Amino acid sequence: MWVFSTAGCRWLGAAGSLAVTVGGWAAGALPVRGGAGLWQPHGPGATTAGAVLAYLGLTLLIAAWWQYGRLLVTGGPHEGERTGLTLGCWAAPLLLAPPLHSADVYSYIAQGAMVLEGHDVYGAGPAVLGPGELGHDAAASVGGHWTDTPAPYGPVFLVLAQAVVKLTGGSVVPAVLGMRLTALGALALVVWAVRGLARPEQRAGVLWLAALNPLLLIHVVGGTHNDGLMTGLMLGGVLLAVRGRWVTGSVLVGLAVMIKSPAAVALLFIGILVARRRGGAAGVLKGLLPGAVAAAVAAGASLVAGTGFGWLRTQGVAAGIHTALSVTSDLGLGLGVLVADDPEPVKGAVQKLGLLVALGVVAVLARRAWQGRLDPVLGLGLSLLALVALSPMVQPWYVLWGTCAVAVVAWNRRAGQLLAVLTAALTYETAPSGHTPAYGFALAGLVLAAGLWWTRREPWPPTGSGPDLDLVDGTRPAPGRVAAQGPRTGA
Predict the structure, then answer these.
(1) How far apart are CA 394 and CA 391, in angstroms?
(2) In this structure, is the dihedral angle defined by the CA atoms of residues 191, 197, 202 and 208, taken in order, positive or negative?
(3) CB 400, CB 219: distance < 8 Å
(4) Dihedrals phi, psi of 434, to nearest 5 degrees
């Protein structure tokens, strides 16, 4: 049937994306004020109808995406020839939508305005913006806990936010659309990086899991989260390092760290690439240089931006905000309620233990990459996923950090299939308004259960397509990269 072809998936997904946008105009994360008559509530009836339409559109988009991936795995070599067109058709309707599934963009705008107004963005939250100051309208729409929370973002992102506020005068609608342009740039960076890292015959599939992923489209394009920019710069840096331009690559990763700090994990694996190319003790020493380059970028950005090094002390502020997706926070809180009058110390201890375990996992993966037993890009992706899984604060879109890297190597393998299921389920966790209702978790659970049933019924890779990545001989070149990464032979 036509609807089950790649062309049918393209237009079905576009229809879903359009429905998400139209529904979002009534049920999205609309501003409290400053909507310019465009983005404003229209009463409970319209809000409910908009939410239903948005969820139906989201379901169409995910169904189209899922079928598109199945066709790429099982179909012929020409199935993915127009993947770029598909991405454009799915992303375009979201460009003029109000903020979707998150109100974080209002924080970004308010933080950019705080810098322009002379406030210490690392010492106070958007609530300090008073009437008549830039960003005051945006600050009114910042969600609960974040109103008084200092910015956890690096100075490079704050420079971008400042530029948007300055160009738009801080008006909410133009500023949101300006931030969406940066999100569109982030999407372009992700596409460039993952295409460059992938083998040519695998590019369509890699783009399917990384860039066409509904979780990315909804939360990076629709929600304008800066995680897309961090991921695009980080993977762009890895791409340049793989191509031998590790200094420029480390600069890009340094910029990514100045968006959000988890990108620093990439420096470990770039260091491994550099060290393995050189070999010996000299290689180990040279492997430390990417970190030094990125540190210099971070220091320079902090000084040039004028915001100083306050970002160093705000990296843990998010840990104080409880999110239900954080296993360590949930476990720590539950244990604390059982054994102590004040559960917070117990919760904090469990959160710290989780981070230590995550660091241990990263160390194991890095060792395997150093030994040539694991593709470094896959190691990076799995490390970021471990960090997210054991983090004291977890948001659905954080999974994209590692998913985009894993997609490069394993989009059509078991890991890629499971990540496809997980990201599809997580897309339902937040409502179009940005809230996290109980039914969102119920919908996510249903999608997760259906997806896991599908993985058992139709496991990847298909029979006869080769061994899973866990069985690949570490001495054999991994897809597209390890041949250029291994220790040098000869003189």
Answers:
(1) 6
(2) negative
(3) yes
(4) 95, -10
Token reading at 389: 């899984």
Cβ–Cβ < 8 Å for 209, 69? yes
* pLDDT tens per residue across span 218-271: 999 999 999 999 999 999 999 999 999 999 999 999 999 999 999 999 999 999
Burial 302-320 (b: 16+ CB within 10 A, else e): beebebeeebeebeebbbe
**Tokens in use for 65?**
């995406």
Kindly give, in sequence order, each residue whose CB lies less than 8 Å from that of residue 132, ignoring residues fewer than 6 positions away.
none
Those residues whose C-beta lies under 8 Å from the C-beta of residue 355, and which sit 6 or more positions away, are 328, 390, 391, 392
| Rounded CA separation 407/397 (Å) | 15
Residue 469 binned pLDDT confidence (cut-offs 50, 70, 90): very low
Peptide bond into 41 cis (omega under 30): no
Q: Which positions ≥6 away from 234 have C-beta within 8 Å? A: 252, 253, 256, 263, 266, 401
Token look-up 């496991």 returns 459
Largest pairwise CA distance in the chain:
75
Sequence-separated (6 or more) residues with CB below 8 Å from residue 453: none
Placement of tokens 């704050």 in the chain: 158
Query: Which ranges of 117-171 would DSSP assign to H, the alpha helix?
Result: 136-140, 155-168
Dist CA 335 CA 345 (whole Å): 10
End-to-end CA distance of the chain: 60
* Token pair for 20: 């998400």
Q: How many residues does the chain have?
A: 491
